[in-house]
Amino acid sequence: MFSRPDLHKLLLSKIPPNKIHFNKRVLSVGQSDKGVLLRCADGSIYEGDILIGADGAYSAVRQSMYERLQKENLLPRCDTISLSAGYACMVGTTVPQDPEKYPILKDDYSHLFVVVAEGKPHSWTVITVPGNRFCFGVVIQLGDKERDETFRNSEWGPELIDSMIAQVADHKVPCGTLGDLIQATPKELISKVYLEEKLFETWNHDRIALIGDACHKMLPSAGQGAINAMQDAVILANCIYELRSRSHKQIVAALKDYKSQRYDHAKKQVQISSTVGKVFYGQTWHEKLMRRAVFTWMPMSFEERSFFKLVGYRPQVTFQPFVENKTNLKILPQKMSKRYAEEQKLNQENQKS
C-alpha cells in the first residue's frame, strides 16, 4: 500500500513529458463528422478524432457536451441535477516519522485504523505507508445548511481549514492524536474536498466520451473511485483498439460499446460506496443502527462473498497477453478482442511459413 502522491509520480514517470500540457482550461468543444475541436483559455486549439473527458467531477468536457445535448433536447433530466454532497473531507500524508516514536511503522505491512466519533459528526482513518509515513483522512457529515449549493466551493479558504483542524485535532488515534499527524504534514500535502456522489446517465455523444469522476463520482468509503477510473480506461482502450478505421460511424460505435461494458459495473460500485459511506461516516440514528447491524450481526461469510464478488471483476487490456490468475477467485468474463485474435493467428501462420 502506498500514498496517492506516490501513485501520481509512478504514472507521471511512464508518460513522455511532451504528451502532457499544463495550465490548460477548456473553453469550448466542437465536433463534426470529421473530428473534434478543443479551444482553451490561452488561445490554443487542439484537433483530434476522439475527446476523452477525464477531468473530474466538475468536468468541463462534460459540461460542454451536455450544453449541446440540452439544445438538441437529448439530455436526460437526471443529468441536469447537481452532484450530491453529504460530507466534507480533509486528507494528508505526513513527512517521514521516527519509528522509535511510532513502533507500528516498523512492521512490513500497513496498519489501517477507522474511528467513528460518538456524539460528533466526525470519522477518521489512519493508514501506515512505506517510508515511515502516515496517511490520514477526516470526514465531517454535513448538515442541511452546509449542503446548500451556495455553501460549496471547489477550494476551501484557510479559515475553513483551520476551523476543521480545530474541531478534530484532539481526536485520538493509535499513534497519538490527529493534531500530531496534521502538524507533521506540510500544508501542500493536505487536500480538502467535498465528498460528492452521482452516477451520470450520459457518458458519450458522437466523438466524446467521459471516464472516471466525470461520469460516476463515488464516495471514497469503499476505495472504488480510482479503481473504476482505471477500469474505464482499460475498457475504453480495448474499444479503441478494435477500431478498423477512424470513421465517424466506427468511433461512435466504439464509444457506445465502452459505456455498455462499463455502466452496470460502475452503477453497482456507486451504490456500494454510498452504503459503505453511511456505515463509516453516517451519524443519523438510522445510519448508526445500520452500522451496529453490519458490525454486530452480519456474518463474516457474507462479507467474504461480497468482497470476492467485488474483486472478481478485473478487466484487462485485450491486446496484450492476459495476466495469469494465481488465486482461487472466480474471475468474471470480459469481452475479448477479435482483432488481437486475428493478429495472433496471422503471426502464428507467418512463423510456420
- Rg, Cα atoms, Å: 23 Å
CATH architecture of the largest domain, by name, is 3-Layer(bba) Sandwich
CATH class of the largest domain: Alpha Beta
Count of β-strands: 14
Question: If you average the pLDDT, what whole number results?
Answer: 90
Strand order across the largest sheet = 6-7-8-5-11-14
| Span of the ends, CA to CA | 48 Å
Largest sheet: 6 strands, antiparallel
Give the ordered list of helices and strands. HEEEEHEEEEHHEEHEEEEHHHHH
The 3D shape can be described as globular
- Estimate percent helicity: 25-40%
The CATH superfamily of the largest domain turns out to be: FAD/NAD(P)-binding domain
The total domain count is 2
Write a concise synopsis of the structure shown.
By secondary structure, the protein is an alpha+beta fold. It has helices spanning 4-13, 60-71, 144-147, 158-168, 178-183, 225-241, 248-281, 285-297, 300-311, 338-352, and strands spanning 26-31, 36-40, 45-48, 51-53, 84-93, 112-116, 122-129, 133-141, 172-173, 176-177, 190-199, 204-205, 208-210, 216-217. Helices cover 38% and strands 20% of the residues.
